[in-house]
Write a structure and sequence with these properties.
This is ABC transporter domain-containing protein. Keywords: ATP-binding, Cell membrane, Membrane, Nucleotide-binding, Transport. InterPro entries: AAA+_ATPase, ABC_AA/LPS_Transport, ABC_transporter-like_ATP-bd, BCA_ABC_TP_C, P-loop_NTPase. It comes from Actimicrobium antarcticum. The two termini are about 30 Å apart. The chain has a domain of about 120 residues: Rossmann fold (3-Layer(aba) Sandwich). Strand 7, helix 6 and strand 8 form a beta-alpha-beta unit. It is globular. The protein is of the alpha/beta class. It is about 35% helix and about 25% strand. The chain binds adenosine-5'-triphosphate (ATP).
């Protein structure tokens, strides 16, 4: 068993003649929370797309729990234990909150979307969906159509859908984007709670979220990982200050 849930080894990705990811290395130890930060266009989303299998890498290797995922399709990587959030787009707006979660559980079990006729017999899926519903604090909203939830509730549901299948490695894409300060504080607490014992990699622009939640921060600038360190060391890293953080890092971690 690898000590690292996720490893990137000299990963490169080009679109046409443009090299967007330029030899990235990253080791995420099992059970740790990592944040990837960097300026707009640095390649953060591309990196997520490579890790989750949406795009193929041009060269290098990506290991999930010690095994290479190169060449695998997103659902195959998902079945190996990696789940990625998609910023609300994976919510079915006409289904209720509970149905969305049950759907996500069934998807992870391999029922895809042809499961409807078997639903009642699937006690495990029901219990798992109920457990996630409780974890994300939306029990009272269980019968509400997801499209009628508030924005913050939809983002919580999105996190619920991401963790519903029981994946060990969770990728969250800007989980607090568009939230007020108090909503984002609540989201941080939710993420902290649902990722206990799991490995988290998140892309996030809000530095108080990043510094409050991450064990380690990886800084990506123009496709190169210029630093990966604890929040305190990242705050004090002159190279990072110059390339990205400037005066934007919070004075003290918000944890
Ligand atoms: N499918 C694609 N084809 C061609 N170029 C792409 C593709 N996807 C991303 N890029 C380019 O890769 C670069 C990095 O984009 P990416 O979205 O990964 O950056 P980012 O760090 O996530 O930015 P932001 O913080 O603004 O979301 C950009 O120049 C973008 O235009």
């Amino acid at each position: 068993m690898s000590a690292f849930s996720l490893e990137l080894k000299d990963v490169r990705k080009s679109f046409g003649k443009s090299e967007i990811i330029r030899g990235t290395n990253l080791q995420v130890p099992t059970g740790e929370r990592f944040a990837v930060i960097g300026p707009n266009g640095a390649g953060k989303s591309t990196l997520f797309n490579l890790i989750s299998g949406r795009f193929g890498i041009s060269s290098g290797d990506i290991l999930l729990n010690g095994a290479s995922t190169v060449g695998l399709r997103p659902f195959e990587i998902n079945r190996l234990g990696l789940s990625r959030s998609f910023q609300i787009t994976n919510i079915f707006h006409r289904l209720t909150v509970y149905e969305n979660l049950r759907c996500a559980v069934l998807w992870s079990l391999g029922y895809k979307y042809s499961f409807w006729h078997r639903l009642n017999g699937l006690k495990d899926a029901h219990e798992r969906a109920e457990a996630v519903l409780e974890q994300i604090g939306l029990q009272r909203r269980r019968s509400v159509a997801a499209g009628l939830l508030t924005y913050a509730e939809q983002r919580a549901l999105e996190i619920g859908i991401t963790i519903a299948g029981g994946a060990d490695v969770i990728l969250l894409d800007e989980p607090t984007a568009g939230m007020s300060r108090s909503e984002s504080d609540a989201a941080v607490e939710l993420i902290r709670k649902v990722t206990v014992g799991k490995t988290l990699l998140m892309v996030e622009h809000d530095m108080s979220v990043v510094f409050g939640l991450a064990d380690k921060i990886a800084v990506l600038v123009y496709g190169e990982m210029i630093a990966c360190d604890t929040p305190a060391n990242i705050r004090g890293n002159a190279k990072v200050q110059e390339a990205y953080l400037g005066s934007h890092a919070p004075e003290e971690a918000a944890s």
